Amino acid sequence: MMAALLNLLFMPVCAALSGLFLWATAGQEPKDDRELYRGFIWPLAAFMLLYWGTVNTDAVRMYTDPVFRMQAEMDAHPVYAALKLTAPDDHKALHEFLEGQMSQGLALPEAFVQARPLLTRLANERMGFADQKTRIQWGQVTVDTLRELQSRDPELCYRVMSSQSLDPQTLASAFSVGNANAFQQAVVSVYESADKGMRHERTPGDQPADFNEAARAFSAIRDDLAQQFGQPVSRQVSSKKLPEQPSEPAEQLCAARIAQLDAMLARPQGMAAMLVDSILR
Amino acid sequence: MNQNNGHTTLEDQQDDVGEDEADLEERQWLAARGQKMAVYSILLNFVMRSAERSGALTGWLLEAAYLAVALFAVAAVLKMCSGLDKSQNQKILFMVLSFVPLVNLGILIYLSIKTTRMLRDAGWTVGLFGAKP
Fold first, then answer.
1. Where are the domains of chain B?
2. Does position B6 have pLDDT exceeding 90, yes or no?
3. Which residues of A171-191 are buried (b: 16+ CB within 10 A; e: fewer)?
């Protein structure tokens, strides 16, 4: 709208300025047609260049060009920037999603809240390439999120842990500001670390972890959960895919998943990273 | 101007009339040329609009073509203004208005009508694509 108006005003404004300039410089001194024409055209060219240069500066385009403003806002967001830098396919998916949300009138932070399920899915897929500390950070954010939801709405907690789609209103009010910030930081860490991992630039802090030992730890945690919440709950939260309609109470399942993740995160770094990866990815 | 004892002679008066007639004739030719250019610039405007709608011209090429037509129209306006003996400030105003969409067409038509009237009064034949004495 604003850009179209500026385009429409381009020639009239430049011509008016040029006319004013000619009128001011010519004064009452009569000039022949050729001089008047030249005296009008040169300032016109100068004002056109000036106008064009001004309306195309980033500062002006932020006010006049909604697409440019939207792109600038997205580029300044750490999650968007991280995906753009490290994962072109995921960046494309996120860009299309955000564009769709913002075209419906949502501001960028609101659009990012709506993008959370998409980002969770994408980050879970990437986690296998991330270093141990990042996997633990991701696991910690996940367990903190579930704990926050469990205290408010166990049903919602179950829907989030079973990766069910949430309606926009629910998503908009589901997470606290602190949790949303921690989530975004974790997403950035996962992408940056996974990028290094894919390029075999392993961080030196990673500790060796034995796969068989991890399998035994997984079983031990499952047995503990069975004692605490019962066999059916333990079996369900130990499987990767959770049903849409749980056969056990959502509150129990959510509490069991929180306990499971807490137990995993309490293990030594290498083991904890492997266990969290096995259950979340 | 030649003067004799403060009085203008018949010869001087005849010279003045001759100069005025030459000046008037020059202005009529200017106005006629300007009017012809105005007609072409109106036609070019319509051609440009068609080219824009059909997509034959786009982007910078279209902008450049519009600018060229506008500059041609300004030259036409200047010639007609001089022919119609407009003041310098009026000429500047008409030049500026030549760059305002829709108003530019109005200006060309207004000046063209004024020119037609002046030329017809002077005994010229004015047709669709210009005038001849």
1. 10-132
2. no
3. beebbeeebbebbbebbbbbb
